[in-house]
């Protein structure tokens, strides 16, 4: 059967509970590795190079762009952030699934480059729950909350570009859903074109 | 989320262990109903109308053909066998998955009529195991065994027409694989086009 890992792209606006779902997967699933981004921002206390980020100088990062070593990148608040091709490729080749947490635009770019990737959009169970989750984030002013709501709702319109949709009304169920998706994707004939050869039939 | 049942087409030549896998699913999964065929052959002792088969007279069966009430049908040893549309449609509508065990030609016909169906091909783990399973079926003469092997190998060439492939090297694993496929299919965006409306977002 299919022996390479999958490239898995997961998006979900703030308020969907994506963070909790993914950290649950990170703890439980030892066949899934999370993509490590490259960045030019300063390491914060406790952050480890190669674990939290690959920390790069601006010159190094720009050389990576130049050499086509990034799947996608953005400049945000004067710092670069990007996804190194090599980490993703190495992970997949070694048989681990590589999970990329990324916002919608980045996800669409990745789909163009890796049409075989599996894309999953995480949604909140309801409008009210989305608002509740965004409000409960802390001490934000009403304007900030409205802005976040607006952004979340706007991002959700991209759900139709994704392969799968997981409604996060229960963390365990959402985690299982993602596991089922990955297991099932590996059983697709399109990912097992030499299956008859593999089992010694043809 | 997706509330209708799926139409699931399962094929696998003799020697793949398909029978055992499916009877395991039949026992364990109460959200899956098995399609009941219509036939003109005489009921055998213990067979119940509407459970094992829908038993029909030749006139009734031919009327069903005439009225387009069958998804597919064959005549075999002077008896008709066919899949009634209504049973499949009612099952799916009521939210149960409807599993159709069918040989390759029938499966391809069903895919033409129901492009949304999920098709799964069950394979043996190896050539040797296929032979062992076919031989262990009983007292068959060598010619019969060779014929069965030939037929099985020929049928396996159709694996590329199926969505998924499940290698049956372990019954429990094969059953789980089928469960993952069905769970994951229901999470596809293409089966949840009104998801934003459903969760009250748009």
Automatic annotation (TrEMBL), chains A, B:
Matches recorded under InterPro entries: GK/Ca_channel_bsu, Guanylate_kin-like_dom, Guanylate_kinase, Guanylate_kinase_CS, P-loop_NTPase
EC number assigned by the record: 2.7.4.8
Subcellular location: Cytoplasm
Guanylate kinase-like domain location: 5-183
GO CC, alphabetical: cytosol
Entry keyword set: ATP-binding, Cytoplasm, Kinase, Nucleotide-binding, Transferase
Amino acids binding ATP: 12-19
Biological role stated in the UniProt entry: Essential for recycling GMP and indirectly, cGMP.
PANTHER family membership: GUANYLATE KINASE, GUANYLATE KINASE-RELATED
Protein name: Guanylate kinase
Source organism per UniProt: Acetivibrio clariflavus (strain DSM 19732 / NBRC 101661 / EBR45) (Clostridium clariflavum)
